[in-house]
Amino acid sequence: MKKHNPHPFNIGLQSNFSGKSLECGCDEAGRGCLAGPVVAAAVILPPDFHCEKLNDSKQLTEKLRNEIRPIIEKEALAWCVARVDAAEIDEINILNASILAMHRAIDGLKLRPEFIIVDGNKFKPYQNILHQTIVKGDAKFLSIAAASVLAKTHRDEIMENLDKEFPQYAWRKNKAYPTLEHRNAIAKFGVSPYHRMSYKLLKEPELPFEF
Questions:
Q1: CB–CB of 72/79 below 8 Å?
Q2: Cβ atoms within 10 A of the Cβ of 4, count?
């Protein structure tokens, strides 16, 4: 299990990559999950945005993410969260689904971005707006970190609501990641309508050694 950084706050996070005022940061959450949607966020922050605790969502506790989310949603110049559900993930694959979710999030912004920065190394051009992919960008740029927090908190909220419908999978706790608890529940109860059937939902049984 990845340990939290003991000093998780955003020392060194940069406010801008392109020099454009309306620079949009994008990130997604839920690519590795066995069920539920992949969720993406697009965020345009004001140039003077300051939130000391903001960082890559993976470096923050759930409590901190939930504290930071309303600050981002209140102070961002524009933000939007979008999703691609399990059936569509199965149809187009998770990489394409993640990019599609980001495009949908950008579609929903009330302001048209002048430049787009994206966490990771894969993206497809959005209309005629220039973009840049940035590996570990959620730990380097404020707008991508903000997008990572919104994507993660909104997706967690979705899975907590789905947990009420299917409590046997403990999605409130595991958020549909491939934990042992989740896989054991799939083995016991079968799949739900929200599981990604293109994923390997159960681990392969270990084969005995042959001598």
A1: yes
A2: 12
**What φ, ψ does residue 135 adopt, rounded to 5°?**
-65, 130
Q: Is residue 104 part of a domain?
A: yes
Whole-model pTM: value is: 0.90
Distance from C-alpha of 101 to C-alpha of 95, rounded to nearest angstrom: 10
For 62-120, how does the pLDDT look when each residue is reduced to its tens digit (9 = 90+)?
A: 999 999 999 999 999 999 999 999 999 999 999 999 999 999 999 999 999 999 999 99
Instruction: Give domain status of residue 44, yes or no.
Output: yes
Q: What is the number of structural domains in the chain?
A: 1
Map tokens 């947990």 to a residue.
163
Domain of residue 143 covers 23-157
- Helix axis angle, 142-165 to 62-75, nearest 10°: 120
| Per-residue confidence band for 55, with pLDDT thresholds at 50, 70 and 90 | confident
Whole-number Å distance between alpha carbons of 149 and 152: 5
Q: pLDDT digits over 173-201, tens only?
A: 999 999 999 999 999 999 999 999 999 99
Give the CATH number, domain containing residue 64: 3.30.420.10
